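Risk register update: the risk of archive-format incompatibility is retired. Evidence:
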Amino acid sequence: MSESCRVDHDASDVRVPRDGADSLDEGSFLVALKEDQVEVESLAEWLQFRFELGEGGSAIDLGLPAAELVEVGAVDDEYPGHLADDGKIVVLKRSTLRRSLLLVLVAGVLACGDAPFGDVGGGASDWIGEPTLVSTATTEADGPALVPVRRVDWFNGDLPPVAGTTSAEIISGVYARAQPSDPFVQATPAEIALALPGIEFPSQVPPEVRYVTSQLVYDLAQISLSSEQVAAFGLWSVEPYTRSRSVGQQAVLTVINDPEGLAALASGTADTSCARFIDRQAACSVTSVEGSPAWELTDRLGVSLIWYSATYRYELFLRSGVNFGWAVPMADSARPLDSVSS
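Archived output:
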C-alpha cells in the first residue's frame, strides 16, 4: 500500500509578553494586507475568514466578507505570517493563490496513491519548527485522571507583592501594574484571594498542566474591578506566553461577579434549563457540580462548564483536544484559592 499524504494546517508559533491576557483565542485566522494580497494560514482559512475572540466565555465568531478584509490588524499580535527562509513574509496575490492552490491539490491527489487523504488533519507543526504535542492524558472513555494543583508552578507567584491586606488596598495596588487599555492585570494568587474573598480554584487539574497564570480584571475607567468578570486563570502545558494558546494552553477559568444569578438560585426561582444560554450557539447539557445545577456548552473550540459557588459564577473552558470528562471533576474539586496555591 502506498504512503498517504497529509494536508498541513494550523501552524502558528508566537512569542508574547507576560502581560498577555488569559483568553480563548484559537491559533488560526487570516489577515488581509491589501485588496489584492492575502496571507493564508491554511486552505480552510482561505475559504472561511474568522476571528475567535473572547475572555473566559465561549468565543465570539465574526465572519468577515471579502470586501471588509482590508487593513485588518492581528489580535494581540499573536499570529504572524509564514516566513520564508530569508525571513520575509510570504504573500500571494489572490489570483496567483487560487491557481496555485488548485494545482497543488490536483497534483497531491494524483501523487498520493490509494489513500490520498488518509492523514487529513495532521498538523503542520514540523515545517515551522513547532513540535507536535502528543497528549499523554487518558481519553474520556477512560475517565478522569487529574493530578493535584500543588504540583504546578504559579507563574505570577514571584511578582513583588503590593502593600495592604484589605480587598480595597490589594485592588488598588495591583492596578498599578496595569498596561494601557488592557483590563487584565497580572496578580499573585495570594493577592487575588485577598481581593476576592471566597474565591475558589480547582484542587485537581489535567496532568499536562505545568503552569497557572492569574489576573484580576479591571474597569479601567473606574480604577476598580469589572462589574462582571473579576478574575481569570490560564492553565498551561508550556511556559506561559511563549507559545500560541492553541498549542500551550489547556484551559481557562473565568470568575464572574453575578449576585442576581446567585440570588435566583438560592430562592429556587432560577431557570436551570439550557434556554438561558441560547445566545451562546453551542450544544448545551445540564449537569451538576457539588449538588447544584451546572451547564456544559460544547462547540468546535471546546467545552465550557458553568457553575455557581456561594460567592461567584465560574466558567471553566477546556480546549478542543483536552479530555472534556475532566470538566465536572475539576469543578467538584474547587477549594479556597489560598489553600490550593500556597
